[in-house]
Design brief:
Length: 368
């Protein structure tokens, strides 16, 4: 298979700001076989895309726990014979929110690149080299929760084939606080087994990071009415009484769809409660966690693919992606749908041939 043909297959897993979405589970060595997935006719459904290796100007790859030499980014350049002047970056150790960090980095690079440039973002994770073999309960949980997966995203300053428009990327880092810094921490146990230690304070730390991120995100996306109510509540608490309950803005007035990082059931439950979201609005996150597990930075793209496969995406709809990661980070991205998929139903994505079986009932977990 020629390099252009291989790259053409990889584009079938990509989005052009966004052109298409697909995400499939694969191990570390299978990352470079992504081009083998999907039938040839997919390209025709992507609005006459004719990608070539020379089309890629920027390549950003993120994989938190596996950082080989040469890097994943170098491997992709080698396999698809990308140009010698391609700007390639590999991000490691950035946690589950690295996908949105990569999108933000690609956006920044595109802003200083010539008009019509293309940036390919590949978000993946592999747990194989980091499987914990010890007995510490706090370090065994990731073995049960995390899964391998990945997704490719194509961003461009050429809007001819655009599916979505990237409106905002807001990043929050609370790593200056020791508790936040160590709540998701790779370390050795007393028997020298390496693993990821998830602190009991994780939910509290995530909540604080989310509050800081919402505070920065709100003024950028909320309608004036919600901002006014929030301002009045803030003034009342300052002037009248601290006992007045603070007003929580209704982000449902700013977004139609919510893609919450499928980090765990407790994370999704807490965000649904805090943001007063309906069951349907968190359905994509729950079903992604149910079917694929926590695929780290790529989980948000599985969720967006679910919304599209269900036929719920409409022109003008707004999407809020929320990612959490070690450090501790909370990152957000706001998208606007420019062109819904031509054939909803998951015919060519990770939900192909099974989306009709979802949602499924997930029983409550009882604590003893």
């Amino acid at each position: 298979m020629s390099s252009s043909a291989k790259l053409k297959r990889l584009y079938q897993l990509a989005v052009s700001n966004i052109v298409a979405i697909a995400a499939v589970p694969f191990a570390a060595s299978a990352l470079l076989k992504a081009a083998e997935l999907g039938p040839e006719e997919l390209l025709a459904r992507r609005r006459a895309l004719r990608p070539r290796a020379t089309d890629i100007d920027i390549l950003v790859v993120n994989c938190s726990l596996f950082a080989p030499t040469p890097s994943f980014a170098d491997m992709i350049v080698n396999r698809y014979n990308l140009r010698k002047d391609v700007r390639n970056v590999h991000l490691a150790g950035m946690g589950c929110s690295a996908g949105l960090i990569s999108v933000g980095l690609a956006r920044n690079l595109l802003q200083v690149a010539p008009r019509g440039s293309n940036a390919l973002v590949v978000s993946t994770e592999t747990i194989t080299p980091n499987y914990y073999m010890g007995k510490e309960r706090a370090m065994l949980l990731p073995n049960c929760l995390f899964r391998m997966g990945g997704a490719a995203v194509l961003l461009s300053t050429n809007g001819a084939n655009a599916r979505f428009r990237l409106a905002r990327v807001v990043r929050t880092l609370t790593g200056a606080q020791d508790g936040a810094y160590r709540c998701v921490y790779q370390e050795e146990d007393d028997r020298a087994n390496v693993g990821i230690n998830l602190s009991k304070d994780l939910m509290s730390v995530a909540g604080d990071a989310l509050k800081a991120n919402i505070t920065a995100m709100g003024p950028l996306v909320l309608p004036a009415s919600e901002q006014l109510l929030f301002a009045l509540s803030f003034i009342a608490r300052k002037v009248v009484s601290r006992g007045i309950k603070p007003y929580i803005p209704d982000f449902r007035t700013a977004f139609e769809h919510f893609c919450i990082h499928a980090g765990g059931r407790a994370v999704i439950d807490e965000l649904q409660r805090s943001l007063t979201l309906s069951d349907e609005q968190v359905e994509a996150s729950r079903m992604t966690l149910h079917r694929f597990g926590n695929t780290s930075s790529s989980s948000l793209w599985y969720e967006l693919a679910y919304v599209e496969a269900k036929g719920r995406m409409r022109r003008g709809d707004r999407v809020w992606m929320i990612g959490f990661g070690s450090g501790f980070k909370c990152n957000s991205a706001a998208w606007e749908c420019i062109r819904p998929p031509a054939a909803p139903g998951g015919a060519d994505g990770p939900w192909a041939a099974c989306v009709h079986r979802y949602p499924v009932d997930i029983p409550d977990v009882l604590k003893h």
